[in-house]
């Protein structure tokens, strides 16, 4: 058995399909199928149960999985040790993040890290959902709630603030807003209710809004509606500097505080390269949130 066979095994186990593993390994599904069959023949056991749903681990495959992950970690740690001698970070790091932090914070922070580490490839996956680090969808993820299950490590990054906002033009076209009761009759912008993937994102529940007229699962879409003068909505304070026409509405009555957390797979805590990157990322995000909120 060689490491490349284990790499293929891990990719299929995490993706639970050949097509999903093909994206991770850049091998075509037919090649992956042959490689898995070859590994099973060499071991004399079936590692996967094939079904229309995909590839599920057998009992033998479940026993092999933690050993293969240990081999993966040992190899990664060895590579990290060698790269660490050069003083700069190299290789690739994939970050999973909600689109708010991905759009308004990570570009500046990761650009600075890249400037200091030109041999490093940084990938940002911006999706409005929770990332599955056990399946290695990302090396680390930013979340608004700490996970309660899984072999994961959690580190608080920073608190951040949100406020109700609208453009000056919108407010001039409509009646004055002196209290929460005045929000009735205004067009409200927010999340699609059944696509809120974390209770911490249910911002409008705190405003008492009964109807949300314009909804999207994307923070960026919501912000563009606000910039277009389409209504009122909750916006991150760190995003307000990107939309100079926005002003806070009822800043005392509607003032929300949330927290960003950095989530990593528990086995990665021994990897010096990822530890260093996580430190730079956390430090950069704290500074960028503080800088932008001071301008809002």
From TrEMBL:
Keyword Electron transport in record: no
Listed PROSITE patterns: HTH_LYSR
A single GO molecular function term of this UniProt record: DNA-binding transcription factor activity
GO terms of biological process kind: DNA-templated transcription
Keyword Electron transport: no
Annotated coiled-coil segments of the chain: none
Gene3D superfamilies recorded: 3.40.190.290, Winged helix-like DNA-binding domain superfamily/Winged helix DNA-binding domain (1.10.10.10)
The entry's keywords: DNA-binding, Transcription, Transcription regulation
Domain HTH lysR-type residue range list: 1-58
Transmembrane segments: none
Family per similarity comment: Belongs to the LysR transcriptional regulatory family.
Protein name as catalogued: LysR family transcriptional regulator
Organism for this UniProt entry: Rhodovulum imhoffii
């Amino acid at each position: 058995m060689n490491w490349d066979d284990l790499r293929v095994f891990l990719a299929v186990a995490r993706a639970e399909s050949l097509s999903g593993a093909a994206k991770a390994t850049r091998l075509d599904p037919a090649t992956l199928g042959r490689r898995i069959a070859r590994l099973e023949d060499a071991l004399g056991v079936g590692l996967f149960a094939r079904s229309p749903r995909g590839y599920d681990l057998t009992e033998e495959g479940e026993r092999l999985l933690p050993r293969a992950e240990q081999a993966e970690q040992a190899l990664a740690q060895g590579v990290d040790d060698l790269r660490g001698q050069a003083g700069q970070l190299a290789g690739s790091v994939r970050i999973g993040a909600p689109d708010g932090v991905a759009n308004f914070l990570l570009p500046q922070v990761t650009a600075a890290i890249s400037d200091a580490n030109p041999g490093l490839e940084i990938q940002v996956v911006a999706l409005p959902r929770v990332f599955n680090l056990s399946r290695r969808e990302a090396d680390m993820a930013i979340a608004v709630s700490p996970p309660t299950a899984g072999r994961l490590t959690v580190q608080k990054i920073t608190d951040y603030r949100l406020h109700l906002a609208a453009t000056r033009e919108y407010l001039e076209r409509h009646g004055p807003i002196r209290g929460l009761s005045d929000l009735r009759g205004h067009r409200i912008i927010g999340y699609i209710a059944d696509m809120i993937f974390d209770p911490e994102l249910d911002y409008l529940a705190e405003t008492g809004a009964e109807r949300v007229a314009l909804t999207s699962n994307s923070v960026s879409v919501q912000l563009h509606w606000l910039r277009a003068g389409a209504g009122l909505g909750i916006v991150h304070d760190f995003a307000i500097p990107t939309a100079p026409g926005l002003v806070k509405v009822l800043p005392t009555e509607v003032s929300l505080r949330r927290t960003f957390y950095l989530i990593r797979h528990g086995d990665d805590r021994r990897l010096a390269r990822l530890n260093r990157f996580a430190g730079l990322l956390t430090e950069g995000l704290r500074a960028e949130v503080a800088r932008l909120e001071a301008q809002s």
